[in-house]
C-alpha cells in the first residue's frame, strides 16, 4: 500500500497546477498549516536579520514568486481550506477551523506587529528610488497595511490589538457556522397534497426530490433560496408562508447554541475598539479611508439621495400592492357586510409581499418566473454566458474533466484568450447542498501574478451559487433572477480571469470594496437584452426560442417594484452604517436597534421578533462591515458604464476591450476612479441609474 503524501507539501503536478482535491485528506490541512507557519517564520527571521540595507527587492517583494514550483505554503492551504469551509464543509472541517483560527490570527499578528520587519518596510517607504507606478502602489499598500494593523502602536497597544483581533476572528467564524447550522436545521415537511396549492410543478418536484433524499414521504421545503423563494411566491397557504417567513427571518435568534445576538454585539464593539486603538473615531472612519466614498458623509449622502429619489415611487408601489391584497382578500367573503368589515381590518404582512407582488406582476405584465423557466435550462444558460464573454472579449471555455473538483456538482473549465493562449481555470459550483453556505460568491484558488523570471501565473477562479437543482423529471431550469445571479458572479470571475498585473496582491478583485461590485453588476445588465437572450434562451423540450412577446414583457416589467428593491438595499446600508459609526460602546438590544436604524427606508410594518443582523453575513463575517453601501455605489457605476455599451452596441468589441484594458485587467494598480475615468472619459453620475429605473431626478455626481 502506498504511503499517503500530503499534497500541499509538494508540487501538485496537475494540469495548470490546479488543486488536487482528490488527493487531499482532512489530516493534511493541519500539518500544512503548521509547516506553512514555520516557513513564514523562517522567512521572517531571514528578512529581519538581513545585514543588507533594506530595499524594495529584499524587503517588500514576496519571496514566493520565483516560479519553478516555489510557492507560499500557508497561502496555498489557507485558500483551499477556507474556500471549502464555505462550499463543502462538515463537522470535522468546522472543528478544525475552530482549532486553527486563533493560531492563524496569532501568526498574522506576529508578522504584522514585528517591529524589526516594520522598520525595514518604513525605511524602504521613506527612501525608495526609481519604482514603477505598480511597485509604488505595492509599497504604499504594504506600509499602510502594517500601519492599519497596528505597527505604530506601543507594546501595550499591540498586546491589546492582538486580543481584539483574535477574538473578532473567532467570533466571525462562529457567526458563519451558527448561520449555516440554523439554515439547514429547518424543513417544512408536507404530506397533504392540498397544502401544495398554487405551487408550480418545478417547486413540487424539487420538494419531492428533497423528501426522497431525506427518506421521507411527501414534500420537503427548505430555507435555501431555490426552495424558499418559489414557496413564498406561489403558495396559497398563508399560514405556511408565515411559517416559512418566520423561520428564515428569525434564524440565529432562538434560545440555543446557534444564537448570534451576543456575537453580533461583541463584533460591533470589537471593531469599534480596534479602530479607536488605531486612532480613528469609528470603525467606519477606519474602513472608509481606503474606499472611493472616502468618508461617512459621502456614504450617507448617497443613501439619502437614493431615498429622496426612490421613496415616493416606492410608496406608490406599496400602495398598489396593498390595494390588490385587500381586493383579493375581501372577495373571499360572500356577504357585503362581512366584506366591508374584512376590508377595513385586513393587513398585508411580510409573508404576503412575494405572493401579491407576483399577482400584481401577472396583472400588469402577464409575466412570472415559471413562464420563463423552460427557456433557461442551465446547460444553455452556461452556453449563453460563455458565448457572451466570447462575443465581447473573444475568450472561450472548454470543460476539462481531468481537472480535479471538490464535489461532483462542480464543473471545471480551461479558459483560452482570443489568441488561443491559456488564460485561466474556471470552476462553477451551481446547486445547494448540506455543507454549503447560502447565497452566491466568487473566489479564487490561485491568483494572478508575474514572477521575477517573467512567467505570467494565471488565475484559478471559482463561482459558487445556489441555483435550482435538476429533478428526476426535469433538468435544472432557472428563473430570470437566477440567470442574473449567474451573470453577476461571472462578472466577478472575469475580473479575476483577465487580471494582468505584476503582483498578486494587486491583481483581479483585489480592489477597493466600493469598486469590486462594478464588473459583477455591470454583467447583470445583459439579462434583459433581447440580442443576448436570443443566443441561448430556447425551450428545453421543443427548442423554440423565447418568444418576442415574452421578451417584450420582460423589458416592460424591468422596473417593476424597482424603487422598493432600491430602498431594501439602502436599508441594509443604513443598518451597516448605524452599527459601525458608533463612537461609544454598543449596549443596545440588537432587534429594536435594527428597527430604528433603517426605519426611514422601510415602508411596511416591522415585526418584533424578526432580525436581519444575526444573519447579515456580509457585515458580520464577510468583509463588508461599513461597506454594504458599495452595492449601490457600484450600481451607479455599472449603469453609467453600460450606457456606453448601449450607445455603441451591447456587443461592441472596441468598448469591451476598453473595459477589459482599463478596469478588468488592472486590478488595484491605480486609484479606481482613475481607472473608471480612463474607460468612461469622465466621472460617473447617478443619472444613468435613475434613467434605467425610470426615476426622474436631477443629475448628481458621486
User: Compute the gyration radius: what is it?
Assistant: 26 Å
What's the story with the biggest beta sheet? Answer: 5 strands, mixed
The tally of helices reads: 29
Contiguous runs where pLDDT drops below 50 for at least 5 residues: 339-344
Q: Estimate what percentage of residues fall within beta strands.
A: 5-15%
Question: N- to C-terminal separation?
Answer: 65 Å
Shape: globular
Count the E strands.
9
The level of helicity is 40-55%
Which secondary-structure class do the elements indicate? mainly alpha
Please state how the strands of the largest beta sheet are arranged side by side.
3-4-5-9-6
Essential attributes:
five-stranded mixed sheet, 55% helix, two-stranded antiparallel sheet, globular, 6% strand, 29 helices, mainly alpha, 702 residues
List the helices and strands and how they pair.
Blueprint: H1 26-48, H2 56-60, H3 73-87, H4 91-112, H5 115-127, H6 133-148, H7 155-185, E1 188-190, H8 201-213, E2 219-221, H9 225-234, H10 238-249, H11 261-277, H12 283-288, H13 296-330, H14 336-345, H15 350-365, H16 369-372, H17 378-393, E3 396-399, E4 411-416, E5 422-429, E6 441-446, E7 449-450, E8 456-457, E9 460-464, H18 480-497, H19 513-516, H20 518-524, H21 530-533, H22 548-556, H23 562-580, H24 590-597, H25 617-620, H26 630-648, H27 653-664, H28 672-680, H29 687-692
Parallel strand pairs: 5-9
Antiparallel strand pairs: 1-2, 3-4, 4-5, 6-9, 7-8
Helix pairs in contact: 1-3, 1-4, 4-7, 5-6, 7-11, 9-15, 13-14, 13-15, 13-23, 18-20, 20-26, 27-28
